[in-house]
Specification:
By secondary structure, this protein is of the alpha+beta class. The chain is built from twelve helices and eight strands. Keywords: Signal.
Length: about 375
Amino acid sequence: MRHFRYFLVLFLVVLCLTEVLSAPAKSKKPTKALAAAAKKPPAKKPAAAPKKPVAAAKKPAAKKPAATKKPTTVKKPTTTKKPAATTKKTAATTKKPATTAKKPTTTTKPATTAKKSAATAKPATAAKKPATTAKPATPPKKPAAPACPVKSSGSKLAPRADPAEAGCAKQTTCTKCVAVKGSCGTPVCGFTEEGKCVGVSSAPAGAAKNAAECKALDAKLKENAAADAEFVTAAKNEFAKIKPHVFGTEKGLKNTSGRHLASALIAPAANKALVATRVENTDTGLSQFSTAGGKKKTTWDDDNNRYSKAEVQTMCEEAIKSVLKLKDTKTLPKGTAITSVSVRSPRGMNLCISVQGNTSVFPGSTNPTVTTPGQQCRPDAGVGDE
């Protein structure tokens, strides 16, 4: 390679000398042509060099190693035309790297792959679609319920209340009660053993709902009324024995014994101090006093016109009747054992009334109770009679 360069330099020097000697008159023009030729190659070479000079250097060494041997064969300096051809070949060889330099520009195709990768990024937008799928979460509209639903035999659901049930409370007999019909033409009322007409949606299991059941209920109520009449008579007899003790008219009665009417308790001069301990419940119409012995005494407040003696007697007889029915007996048990039962008050609430053996009847609590009338209730602690 080094010999080849020396040969080219020597050849150019010889060529220049021959041109100068052969045409002395036209020395100016060739100099311009040479100047132009000298200017052109350096302009083209820098353009080709930055593209891929490394690839251009590798190709002549790999593909044409024999080209380095040509300088040894060139010994004739007179033949000037053949070296010109070699210069053209070298120029041509220099142009080839330019074409090879363009090929790497095709390697810019990975930009399209970048687009493809960008296209592959589209599933990210697809990930947003499940968020829009939340719309089906709205439940479908339920079909409207039929106007007259039929309750299946195996259903445990309570029937819906019919608007016509509002007229049930106006009926006083079983026959008229079951005759009330709703919008579907079916009975909407039931008659209870307590003699009340209520809506079938809230009626107890034993309520009569048709004419046949009314006959059976009437027969049962007559039997109960007959049996109840016996208990009523027995309760009246039992209260007659203890009435003086409750009302404070019993002979030889102690100051704080019995006397479950407020007027009777505060009447004795010795009991005036009890007034300061009185705690009234204006809703129930009952009061509680504290005795010197630390006992709690309860009264019906007849002194404030909250109860009359007749009302108190009725409540006491009702309490005794309930105790007799619970014990299934016609006489109260002897002794001082207390049995408390719920009794309906004329003031509109249930009160817990205590029956102490066969000796006394008094309020077991000054507060109302939610216990059903006739059933046992729990009195306040410490309440009793002497």
